[in-house]
Amino acid sequence: MASGSQTHSEIMPTPAAAPPEPGRRKTLALIVNTAVAGIGAAFSGLLGVFAVRPARGAATERWIRAGTLGDLTPNVPVPRVLSVPRADGWYRARARETVFLVWDGAKQVKVFSATCTHLGCQVLWDGEAKKFNCPCHGGTYDVSGNVLDGPPPRPLTTIDARVEGADEAVLVRV
């Protein structure tokens, strides 16, 4: 019984609890922190690209072909409907915009927006009276886009245009 009177602790000594190695713990923390920082940097860079890219794309200048000089009659406004690309953030669409081309008979073409400066109605050219009429509130403009009568506060908006090429294409800046 002498052997049976020994306690369990005498038979199997309790091993001293070895503390984890500080090098292994520091290495694991360094790996986790590096991974989190890398993910955060990638996410920030991606957000930066999304925030800057639409502004950069909107700054580009575009010229759209509106016709040729052969399509025009001197001092007679000719309406043209342009398909203008628009960007609203990441949404891309094409808007229809009506303009009037007025050719001086030489190489100069003036382009006027067909939108009334009063409340945004579409003006129409009256060939008999030789003026633009706004059907909404009775505003009238002359062939140069200047206000003749009615409530419009300013002349029709002038849009940049140029004539180029052998076919004398009329290009409008949008």
Query: What ranges have pLDDT less than 50 throughout 5 or more consecutive residues?
Result: none
List the total number of helices: 2
Instruction: Give the biggest sheet.
Output: 4 strands, antiparallel
**What's the CATH class label of the largest domain?**
Mainly Beta
Write up what this structure looks like.
This protein has 174 residues and is α+β, with helices and mostly antiparallel strands. The protein folds into two domains: 38 residues; 111 residues, Rieske [2Fe-2S] iron-sulphur domain (Rieske Iron-sulfur Protein), CATH 2.102.10.10. It is 24% helix and 33% strand. The chain contains two helices and eleven strands, in the order ααβββββββββββ. A four-stranded antiparallel sheet has the order 2-3-4-9, with helices on one face. Strands 5-6-7-8 form a four-stranded antiparallel sheet, with no helix packed on it. A hairpin with a 4-residue loop joins strand 10 and strand 11.
List keywords for this structure.
174 residues; alpha+beta; Rieske Iron-sulfur Protein; 4-stranded antiparallel beta sheet; 11 strands; rod-shaped
How are the elements arranged and paired?
Blueprint: H1 8-11, H2 22-58, E1 63-68, E2 78-88, E3 91-103, E4 109-113, E5 124-126, E6 131-133, E7 140-141, E8 147-149, E9 158-159, E10 161-164, E11 169-173
Could you give a short description of this structure?
With 174 residues, this protein is an alpha+beta fold. The chain has helices at residues 8-11, 22-58; strands spanning 63-68, 78-88, 91-103, 109-113, 124-126, 131-133, 140-141, 147-149, 158-159, 161-164, 169-173. Strands 2-3-4-9 form a four-stranded antiparallel β-sheet, with helices on one face. A four-stranded antiparallel β-sheet has the order 5-6-7-8, with no helix packed on it.
